Amino acid sequence: MALVTSKGGSSSSSSSSFTYQLKNFDVFLSFRGEDTRLGFISHLYNALCQRGIKIFIDDNLQRGEEISAGLVKIIESSRISIIVFSENYAYSAWCLDELTKIVECKKNNQLVRPVFYNVDPSEVRNQKGKFGEALSKYEEKLKDKKKVQRWREALHEAANISGWHYKHDCTEFEFIQEIVEEIANSELNRMPLFVAKYPVGINSRAEAIILQLDIGSNDVRM
Question: Which of 27, 58, 84, 159 can bridge 124 by disulfide, Cβ–Cβ 3.0-4.6 Å?
């Protein structure tokens, strides 16, 4: 599942009431709240906020069988998606729907990075352990078998993306700092340059600059 927006924001329990929040975010966090909300996610969220990174994580949006159209738009407009795979991630159909959308956005050049928190990437990739148990239960329960297959494919693809694996070989603080540093130095520092499709009045300005440069002279001009 994906706290609220950036610091100072708030979220209503009605999915229709957060339309005003539909804006671009730097990072979208997808996670299983029961596993990580009060520990790892809260620390990661605060560390990213301290670096001035705008984050979207939802705690209070109204739940349904599928993620809302508003949340889909937020995922699409985010520059980076971080998926925190924890032990019970796959037991949330909401998380799996988010994951499927995130993997789809990756094909449109969105940066996607997984975090394997207390799970091995191979369990996610091959749907072993609790990931396998959760998917098997969905196959028994749901009539839409194609949807379960899409979840399986999304899990496999996401687990093959380069990310971070918490192996308890360092403190959680050090692990989070590594994530924050990489995110802060990634696509967030590559601000797009806007260039008009049909620029007007460029030639006269270029000619004025060329005259000022006095190209051909022996001295150096800047």
Answer: 159
* Strand ranges (E), the chain: 27-31, 55-56, 80-85, 111-117, 164-166
180: left (phi over 0), alpha (psi -120 to 50) or beta: alpha
- Report the amino acid identity of residue 206: A
Q: What is the DSSP letter of 41?
A: I
Q: Which of 172, 133, 127 is nearest to 36 (CA)?
A: 172
- Residue that has been written with the tokens 């030639």 in this structure: 203
| Secondary-structure class of domain 15-196 per CATH | alpha beta
The burial of 92, by beta-carbon neighbours within 10 Å (0-12 exposed, 13-18 middle, 19 or more buried), is given as buried
Which 8-state DSSP code applies to residue 127? T
pLDDT in tens, the chain (222 residues): 544 444 433 333 333 334 435 568 999 999 998 999 999 999 999 999 999 999 998 765 555 556 788 889 999 999 999 999 999 999 999 999 999 999 999 998 899 999 999 999 999 999 999 999 999 999 999 989 999 999 999 999 999 999 999 988 899 999 999 999 999 988 665 555 555 666 677 777 777 777 777 766 656 655
Residues near 87 by beta carbon (within 8 Å), at least 6 away in sequence: 35, 118, 119, 130
Question: Which residues fall within 8 angstroms of residue 7, CB to CB, at 6 or more apart?
Answer: 49
Break the chain into its structural domains and give their ranges.
Answer: 15-196
> pTM for the full model?
0.74
Question: Which residues are identified as catalytic?
Answer: 98
